[in-house]
């Protein structure tokens, strides 16, 4: 799996995507925002990768939200809880898509829902 032609984050294969309800009522380009987040915070994306690959070694399914909460926790602990670390929930689905694009072995372990943005 590779990045899409526009340089954004690609979707996994269609048979790995479940239908989703209404999301993103503001109509923001969340895919682009997530790509910017990954580009601007490679340290945080590295945590997502590390935790996802740990789960892959266990061969257990996991959710991107679970990874995000662990990243939030680790960032808070590493900074001595000085300020709550922020990862917008709207970006998590796209971060998961990038993880699978970068590490195709994760595909059978992560579920996706259809996104519109």
Q: Let me know the largest β-sheet.
A: 2 strands, parallel
Helix content: 40-55%
Radius of gyration: 14 Å
Q: Could you list the spans in which at least 5 consecutive residues all have pLDDT below 50?
A: none
**Helix-strand sequence:** EHHHHE
Total count of strands: 2
Apparent shape: globular
Strand order of the largest sheet: 1-2
How much β-strand is present in the residues?
Answer: under 5%
Number of helices, counting only DSSP H or I runs of 4 residues or more = 4
Structural class category:
mainly alpha
Our measurement of the CA-to-CA distance between the termini, rounded to an integer number of angstroms, reads 19 Å
- Average pLDDT level: 80
Summary keywords:
mainly alpha, two-stranded parallel ribbon, 117 residues, 2 strands
Tell me what you see in this structure.
It is a single chain. This protein is mainly alpha-helical and 117 residues long. Helices cover 49% and strands 3% of the residues. The chain has a two-stranded parallel ribbon with strand order 1-2. It is globular and about 35 Å long.
What is this structure, in a nutshell?
The protein is mainly alpha-helical and 117 residues long.
Break the fold down into its secondary structure elements and pairings.
Layout: E1 17-18, H1 30-40, H2 42-58, H3 64-78, H4 89-102, E2 112-113
């Amino acid at each position: 799996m590779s990045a899409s032609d526009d340089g954004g984050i690609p979707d996994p294969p269609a048979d790995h995507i479940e239908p989703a309800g209404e999301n993103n009522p503001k109509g923001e380009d969340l895919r682009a925002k997530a790509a910017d987040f990954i580009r601007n915070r490679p340290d945080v994306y590295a945590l997502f990768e590390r935790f996802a690959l740990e789960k892959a070694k266990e061969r257990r399914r996991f959710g991107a939200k679970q990874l995000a909460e662990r990243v939030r926790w680790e960032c808070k602990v590493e900074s001595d809880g000085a300020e709550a670390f922020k990862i917008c929930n709207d970006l998590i689905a796209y971060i998961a898509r990038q993880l699978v694009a970068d590490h195709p072995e994760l595909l059978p372990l992560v579920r996706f829902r259809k996104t519109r943005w």
